[in-house]
Amino acid sequence: MTPLLTIENVAYTYPGGQTPAISGVSMEIAAGSKTALVGPNGAGKSTFLLMLNGILRPDSGVVRFSGRPLAYDSKSLRDLRRRVGFVFQNPDVQIIAPTVEADVAFGPVNLGLPPDDVRRAVRDALDHVGLQGYEDRPPHLLSGGEKKRVAIAGILAMDPEVLVFDEPTASLDPATSGEVMDLLDDLASRGRTVLLSTHDVELAYRWADSVILMGRGRVLARGAPEEVFSDPDLLTAARLRPPALLALSNELAHRGIIDRCPPPKGIAELVDRIERSISDHASDRGGHERR
User: Fold this and answer.
1) Which of 63, 89, 223, 244 is a plausible cystine mate for 166, CB 3.0–4.6 Å?
2) What is the rounded distance in angstroms from the CA atom of residue 156 to the CA atom of residue 85?
3) Helix (H) or strand (E) holding 196
């Protein structure tokens, strides 16, 4: 995959702070990828994400989009934020209009789109997030999950190439969290680059193509979820535990009950592997008895 975002030795300390929030961070984000930044609170995940569309400017180092260093004048930032959409952890800080329709239209209007194009963008974005018919509703009367969808729709209406989510399932119940992650999967399947932060290793293991493990403002490791989350020393350094499904799969493989690779990403897949292993053992035993 072609790198779309490149981060080179970036550091940032908040005004008045003594300790860098991130330090010496370098990585590449491939176009079309699903990437999860994983780490405990205070690892620097949110700070890093805020640099990807210019909300924060690094003290040192360079952030590049499509090979070009970010520029921080108002025109350049406006263009960048159209191409790299950011969905905050708390949708209440992102929703500013009195109705859902007005809020989703805010971005396209500020891009100077004609009225017909604005209406089309709003309609398509609300359709995509499953909020058809919500146009006239006041956002403050919506549920947490619905507000999150409005925030996502507001970004989608600007048709960005990259979608960045800071803790997309924070404060959501399990069913709503699942719906939001299904939406992110759908967005990625349509060719968008999706990047999120989370401390939920279970979510990152199931969803991501690539995991970036962060701790104390630095990148500790990067790789496939099954590789990163199988390293106990890395997880200890990041104060995390391995995903339960991966831990169970690795133990079954260690005992010779299933093959070690590739690790399953879901319960149904693990059960299928166990059933195949039982069937293979039964067939081998039957062959030996006939001989």
Assistant:
1) 89
2) 8
3) strand 193-198
Percent of the chain past pLDDT 90, that is, above it, reads 70
pTM for the model? 0.87
Is it true that the peptide bond before 98 is cis, omega within 30 degrees of 0? no
Q: Which amino acid is at 146?
A: E
DSSP 141: G
Beta bridge partners of 163: 85, 194
Report the candidate in 170, 199, 198, 196 with the shortest Cα–Cα distance to residue 184: 196
Span 163-184, pLDDT tens digits: 999 999 988 888 989 999 999 9
The token pair that represents 162 in the structure block: 């990259």
Q: What is the 3-state secondary structure (H, E, C) of 204-269?
A: HHHHCCEEEEEECCEEEEEECHHHHCCCHHHHHHCCCCCCHHHHHHHHHHHCCCCCCCCCCCCHHH
Please compute, for residue 234, the number of CA atoms within 13 A of its CA located in the half-sphere on the CB side: 21
